[in-house]
Each structure stands twice: as structure tokens, then as C-alpha cells.
């Protein structure tokens, strides 16, 4: 490149340097997008409503086994969701970046479904009067 000729990138940088409002608006937009894409930790995910009648045909022993499977799946999905949320809190130059959500995907829907199923199984166990032997 000759010394008298400027690169197109330097012209763009000069334009942004001359317009502080445009630079501020761009940073504000990047920060808003970064914050909106962050994954929630498991404790902040609300359960989806699941009808306990889905488990009405099962006896207490079957409900206990189902609750154990759901609890185990919730533990694994919840720990994965918590890791994604932690990855999303990584900061680059002071701006939160949704790195976990971008590369690992969000497991919020799965966690919400499993929480709802767990509430429904517990409600069905209460309706069927499963005693302390099944708790």
C-alpha cells in the first residue's frame, strides 16, 4: 500500500471517531443484544404446567420410579443449563456475551418441562394418597 493511500477501514474508524453518538448507540445495541440472549440459571426457570391426570393410570410404585427418572433427568439438564448460564456471564471488554447460548444451545425449555412433570407426578402421588413408604 502506498503511503498516500488510506485503507477503507481507517476511513470507517475515522467516521466513528467523529460521531460519538453513533459509537455510543452501537455499543448500547450490542450490550442490549448481549443481555437479551443470556441463558437463565435453573433456579430462575419456571415449570411448565403439566396435568397430573397424565399419570393417573400408574400406581404408587410406578409414580415413585417415574419421579426418580424425572429427577435424574432434571439434575443433568439443570447442571447443563447452569453451565450455559455461567458461560453467558463471561464478559468481553465489559459487555456480557452469550457464548454459552451461541455454542451449546439453551436447555431452558427442557428444564421447564421436567420441572412441570415433577410437580405433576408429586401432585398425582398426593391425590392417590401414596404414603410415607413411597416418599
Please give the structural blueprint:
Blueprint: H1 8-18, H2 20-36, H3 60-88, E1 91-92, E2 95-96, H4 99-104, H5 108-127
Antiparallel strand pairs: 1-2
Helix pairs in contact: 3-5
Structure report:
The chain is an all-alpha fold and 135 residues long. It has one domain. The chain contains 5 helices and 2 strands. Helix 3 runs antiparallel to helix 5. The chain is elongated and about 65 Å long. About 8% of the residues have low confidence.
Describe the global form. elongated
Taking Cα atoms only, what radius of gyration do you get, to the nearest Å? 25 Å
Low confidence ranges: 6-10, 31-36
Note the beta-strand portion.
under 5%
The succession of helices and strands, N to C, reads HHHEEHH
The number of helical elements comes to: 5
Give the tally of structural domains: 1
What summary fits the major beta sheet? 2 strands, antiparallel
Instruction: Describe the strand arrangement of the main beta sheet, using strand numbers.
Output: 1-2
Oligomer: single chain
Q: Report, as a whole number of angstroms, the end-to-end distance.
A: 77 Å
Mean pLDDT: 76
State the total count of DSSP E strands: 2
Q: Percent helix among the residues?
A: 55-70%
Structural class: mainly alpha
